[in-house]
Amino acid sequence: MQWKSQLHNLKAYQPGKTMEDVKEQFSLEKVVKLASNENPYGCSPQIQNFIYDYASSHAIYPDGYAKRLRMKVAGHLSVEPGQLIFGNGSDEVIQIISRALLDPSKSTVMAAPTFPQYKHNAIVEGAEVREVPLDEEGRHQLSKMLDSIDGTTAVVWLCSPNNPTGEYIRKEELLHFLDQVPSDVLVVLDEAYYEYVTAGDYYDSISLIESYPQLVVTRTFSKAYGLAGFRVGYGVGSRDVIGKLEPVREPFNNNSLGQGAAAEAMEDQAFIEQCREKNREGLQQFYEFCESTGLKYMKSQANFILIDFGLSGDEVFQYLMSKGYIVRSGGALGYPQSVRITVGSREQNEELISLMKEFLAVIKQS
Ligand SMILES: *Cc1c(COP(=O)(O)O)cnc(C)c1O
């Protein structure tokens, strides 16, 4: 077979252990997964009626234009319907952008560590990947990213709040970056955690599209909206940019159930506000734990926190898993001494924090 040469060293996505696996392996009754930044409160109860009503239309193809969802999102964001592209998760929007703009003659610039799918898709397309390290605080170094752009650069990926650090790009830096970046370079601002942001100085990224038509903002229904299983994400950009991306999209990439559930969920902004509030309180629990134990951590604008244990993150991960809490080891995320924890419910956070205290006590003795 004549595979693209870049595929020889590319690994398929490694899914973590399922809750069932962990239950069985450690003979546990209860397992809590705080590893993939899913919403511990589920999703808006308002989607239930839609789900039941839908039960009889499975033989019909979905609306390839996602009109109902499109109108809801356009209204919510005050953009035109033609400024939106929907994907099977924002993962697919990333894939569409990569497919549309990257090839072996192109380069693409991103931070490191950041969300791995930018790099993964760039490799599949054969483009040169230029990674610019985050600074000590887990923030993008936008001036260095600017320096890495040259005539071959087609796409720059920004992630704010950044996964896995939770840090966000500051407004002044973003504006300065957008002012400097060549106008034929597409800038993707991945805001998968936008709904969780509470920083007073965070920007209205959507409104920037008017002044910076090369900007595409991506968001998702997988995180705060609690619909990860339905796979719905979207990109917002100028009509020109979206119009160029649309032909690359599969015609029926969003299934009917996902479209409907997302449209219902968007109506219930009170649910999102409650989740944002509870997430803030949950982060506070973890901050207090870190302060009291002297562990280093990064202030987060997302629904997860990266905690530096100063020893193998894998070891912390293994210990917590054996007690029924699945978190994410920093090993695979570019922070081998850390774990990334999704903020859970108050009770889950409390239980996890006491397990981490227990772990620290065990470590001290040995
Ligand atoms: C989770 C995540 C996504 C992908 O979410 P989808 O489920 O594909 O919409 C994209 N970007 C970042 C930074 C994420 O953390």
Automatic annotation (TrEMBL):
Enzyme Commission number, as recorded: 2.6.1.9
GO terms assigned for molecular function: histidinol-phosphate transaminase activity; pyridoxal phosphate binding
Enzyme class: transferase
Occurrences of domain Aminotransferase class I/classII large (ranges): 30-353
InterPro entries per the UniProt record, alphabetical: Aminotrans_II_pyridoxalP_BS, Aminotransferase_I/II_large, HisP_aminotrans, HistidinolP_aminotransfase, PyrdxlP-dep_Trfase, PyrdxlP-dep_Trfase_major, PyrdxlP-dep_Trfase_small
Subunit architecture: Homodimer.
Family, as annotated: Belongs to the class-II pyridoxal-phosphate-dependent aminotransferase family. Histidinol-phosphate aminotransferase subfamily.
Name of protein: Histidinol-phosphate aminotransferase
The organism of origin for this protein: [Bacillus] enclensis
Originating gene: hisC
